[in-house]
Write a structure and sequence with these properties.
The protein is mainly α and 192 residues long. It has 9 helices and no strands.
């Protein structure tokens, strides 16, 4: 069986560019199977028009262009199944359940019921994403003090969660008035 020089050149080109073309195909479609299919179509089109390639130095750009166009062609040919939305019942899986919302509200109320010197660092860490050192700088206090306040805040929250009846009415009223934390309040309560 005799192979022609054109076929040998093309095989060498495919071996040299194959991994890079596959990575590009995978990046485009985010699917291994589809990337392999697109790559095979790319090779087929490139082989059919390989006589048009005059400069091997531009082969990479030429193959990338063919690959990208093949990717776009897959979606031109694809026919999506359409369904009448009036006949479909869609469950809401994104919104939290009433139970989860209730637990979340209860936790917010518990955090709001903490003394400001414990609540402020905790909110800055949990909601603000600040580290102990960043909170210490923000509040103008030693990092050890911040870490102690964070520890005590968590311990108080654990005690509230474990307590029977978790919240009293007086705490709920107190919390509804103190749901937000601002930096001015944080600086005001920076001493233990």
């Amino acid at each position: 069986m005799k192979t022609n020089p054109r076929q040998l050149e093309f095989d060498a080109l495919v071996r040299r560019l194959g991994p890079e073309l596959y990575r590009f195909a995978y990046w485009l479609c985010k699917s291994r199977a589809l990337a392999q299919d697109i790559l095979q179509e790319c090779y087929l089109r490139a082989w059919r028009s390989s006589e048009d390639l005059r400069d091997l130095n531009s082969a990479k750009a030429w193959m990338m262009t063919i690959l990208r166009r093949e990717f776009l062609r897959t979606f031109e040919r694809k026919r999506f199944d359409l369904t009448d939305l009036e006949d479909v019942s869609i469950a809401d899986t994104i919104s939290p359940s009433l139970e989860a919302q209730s637990e979340s509200n209860l936790l917010r109320q518990m955090i709001a019921s903490l003394e400001a010197k414990y609540r402020v660092p905790l909110v800055l860490q949990v909601l603000g994403g600040l580290s102990g050192a960043e909170i210490a700088i923000e509040l103008g206090m030693p990092e050890a003090t911040v870490n102690t306040q964070l520890f005590r805040a968590r311990e108080q929250l654990k005690a509230m969660v474990d307590a029977p009846g978790a919240q009293s009415t007086s705490n709920t009223e107190k919390m509804s008035n103190s749901n937000t934390v601002n930096i001015g309040e944080a600086r005001e309560h920076r001493r233990i």
